[in-house]
Amino acid sequence: MTDTLYLFDLDNTLIEGDSSTYWSEYLVREGLVNDAGYLQQEAQLMADYAVGKMDIHAYVALTLAPLAAMTKEEVDRRVTQWVTDTIMPRVYPQARDLIQTLRAEQQQMMIISASVSLLVKPIARALGIDHATGVDVRIDDGYYSNVISGTPSYQQGKVTRLKAWLAMHPQRNGRMAFYTDSINDLPLCLVADEVVLVNPCPQLQAQGEIHQWPVVNWAR
């Protein structure tokens, strides 16, 4: 066992596609969204994300609004089943193999994602990753709100949240290896000791060429 902390982005890194979008599509399929333009609005915000310009507060406000009528317990129950049915079949085999290898070696692993924690943490558990950070939302009287709580783990916020987590887990302060696909994660790439680009977007690939970060191409 080494003192390296292996950090993973989630969407389009460990899984094919974006968990937040899959969750939005699930809400529509289940008849939990009344707005006919909901998925179109979500797609526009995700297009902004792809180029590093998404308003994370607007995204959370839109995509968590449909949960207002469900208790936290009902949402969590639905998420657990959704992870099994929708997310696990989309895990890259190469990601699954790497996670299994790192677990066998008793390496430290953490998912740090710009998706909301209520999705990220159950996915991490299903993958066998002990630690996970996502965008936290306020919980009011047993219901998830669509308002972000604290610093969102998005762009520079990932660095802020990671530093806060490390301050609470000083025994895990060591080398950091980070796997990601997105230009939004450039701030964290620049503070990691090792970076591996997984199917990187064009903007991140260009940065990777400058910094000589290795690239892997994972596929289902």
Describe the structure.
This protein is α/β, with parallel strands linked by helices and 220 residues long. 45% of the residues lie in helices and 18% in strands. It has nine helices and eight strands. Helix 2 runs antiparallel to helix 3. The longest helix has 16 residues. The protein is globular, with a radius of gyration of 17 Å. It starts with a strand and ends with a strand. The mean pLDDT is 96.
List the helices and strands and how they pair.
Blueprint: E1 5-8, H1 19-29, H2 38-50, H3 56-64, H4 72-87, H5 93-104, E2 108-116, H6 117-127, E3 131-135, E4 137-140, E5 143-148, H7 156-168, E6 176-180, H8 186-189, E7 194-198, H9 202-211, E8 215-216
Parallel strand pairs: 1-2, 1-6, 2-3, 6-7, 7-8
Antiparallel strand pairs: 4-5
Helix pairs in contact: 1-2, 1-4, 2-3, 4-6
Features:
6-stranded parallel β-sheet, alpha/beta, two-stranded antiparallel ribbon, 9 helices
Quick overview:
The protein has 220 residues and is α/β, with parallel strands linked by helices. It is built from nine helices and eight strands.
Shape verdict: globular
The largest sheet is: 6 strands, parallel
Total number of strands: 8
Termini gap:
29 Å
Quaternary assembly: single chain
SSE string, helix = H, strand = E? EHHHHHEHEEEHEHEHE
Low-confidence stretches: none
pLDDT averaged residue by residue: 96
* Secondary structure category: alpha/beta
> What value does the Rg take, in angstroms?
17 Å
Q: Could you tell me the strand content as a percent range?
A: 15-25%
Kindly report the spatial arrangement of strands forming the biggest sheet: 3-2-1-6-7-8
Q: Helical stretch count? A: 9
The helical percent reads: 40-55%
